[in-house]
Amino acid sequence: MIKVLSVFGTRPEAIKMCPLIQELDRRELIQNTVCLTGQHREMLQQVIDIFGTHIDFHLDIMKTEQTLTTITSDILIKIEDVYKSVQPDVVLVHGDTSTSFAGALAGFYQQIRVGHVEAGLRTYNKLSPYPEEMNRVLTSQIASLHFCPTKLNQQNLLAEGIKNNVFITGNTVIDAFATTVKADYVFKDSNLLDIRLKLASNNKLILVTAHRRENLGKPLENICKAIRRLHDTFTDVYFIYPVHLNPKIQKPVNLILGGLPRVRLIPPLDVEDLHNLMSLCKLVLTDSGGLQEEAPAFGVPVLVMRTETERPEAVEAGTVKVVGTEENSIFQEALSLLTDEESYAHMSRAINPYGDGHASERIANILEDKALWDAIY
Ligand code: UD1
Ligand code: UDP
After folding, report:
1. Centre of ligand 2 from the C-alpha of residue 151, in Å
2. For residue 6, which of 74, 54, 42 has the smallest C-alpha distance?
3. In terms of domains, do 66 and 113 share one?
């Protein structure tokens, strides 16, 4: 038996780890245990409920005013007993959050091998995304197994001298669609019940999300002002904006966009509603990482409201465009896609580079083949 302990704690990690956990549960050679840090609460639980994932340990660390230090230190202190009691062959962490880094560091302290899912993404700017870029770099240094979504991610690690056990697997986010996306899907959230009617009357939908730490303050205000301007320009466009629960996001967003007739500021959607809504949208405006990988799978162009992205293969493929955080550039780029059919078609038809929906199987195959990685710590 190979003992695998998966550790995650935020919404995006859950969406990308739950398909893998389902796959690991199916494998006879693997004993699969799950530890939630609880860095997120409601936004994490929404995902767990949909995938029906078993939770074996829950550290429940979230605080309303949590900081990078409190998240990291609370996890380090609380997770030690879990690692000591499970004594896994490998701890799996995902991506770039404080949970990922703290989970990996705690593994190192117990001399347990760490497997990094969604490894090798880089901007090479320590401050953007902040602190995620550094979380990824540090986690790569600790990890013994690296599961890269794309060839470029693998090349990034090789260039940093990380050469052992670096696998290309695709991104498990595409695997999640097998659970979440349905052709005849009926929305649960009451804010979405009239969405199909709106589309039938030739209205367009734009999905908006924004939550990144480096966008708090002025950049987020700019983003909101650009949306307000787009709202005032296009009377046939509805904006659906599920607002992150962080009070530092809720306050400015409600202040600038609250009360506009075609902007719906709603609580975070569960991932089934979100994925199925996304598939019906004309356009996505976001600073999220995950949405850059997901929306193109439905032929929906993404404008990335950040100064750079750790997903340059999406830019190269033409599925996403980085538009910065200035009001005018966001407005102009969205205007262009809404009015110029040719540039819209160009983005909409580009091929999504993030995999074929079988990433979890590849990762599970590698984990089952312990002889492949056992020799190297
Ligand atoms: C974290 C990740 C970020 C990821 C994002 C996904 C780090 C450093 N950042 O950032 O990479 O993109 O999650 O959303 O790990 N809150 C709730 N309920 C919830 C979740 C959050 O109320 O279910 C509120 C709390 O007040 C919390 C605040 O949001 O203190 C911020 O949460 P935190 O995890 O610190 O940061 P995120 O911006 O969510
Ligand atoms: N998401 C969701 N509900 C929402 C907004 C986003 O389920 O209201 C999903 C989205 O489909 C994607 C993930 O959350 O899979 C992205 O998470 P987030 O933007 O919080 O983090 P990031 O990807 O930037 O790390």
Report:
1. 24
2. 54
3. yes
231 is catalytic: no
Query: Does the Cβ of 16 fall within 6 Å of ligand 1?
Result: no
pTM equals 0.97
Mean pLDDT of 157-185: 97
Q: What distance in Å separates the CA atoms of residue 64 and residue 147, rounded to the nearest whole number?
A: 32
Q: Domain holding 163: CATH number?
A: 3.40.50.2000
Q: How far apart are CA 285 and CA 206, in angstroms?
A: 7
Encode pLDDT of 28-47 as tens digits.
Answer: 999 999 999 999 999 999 99
Q: What angle do CA 46, 47, 48 make, to 5 degrees?
A: 95
Over residues 289-338, the pLDDT tens digits come to: 999 999 999 999 999 999 999 999 999 999 999 999 999 999 999 999 99
> Does any ligand 1 atom lie closer than 6 A to the CB of residue 242?
no
Token pair recorded at residue 115: 């497997």
Q: By residue range, what is the domain housing residue 230?
A: 190-348
- Do residues 364 and 302 both lie within one domain? no
Decide if 41 contacts 59 (C-beta within 8 A). no
Of the candidates 269, 275, 279, the residue with the CA atom closest to the CA atom of residue 188: 269
Catalytic residue among 113, 244, 275, 306: 244
- Give yes or no: residues 58 and 166 share one domain: yes
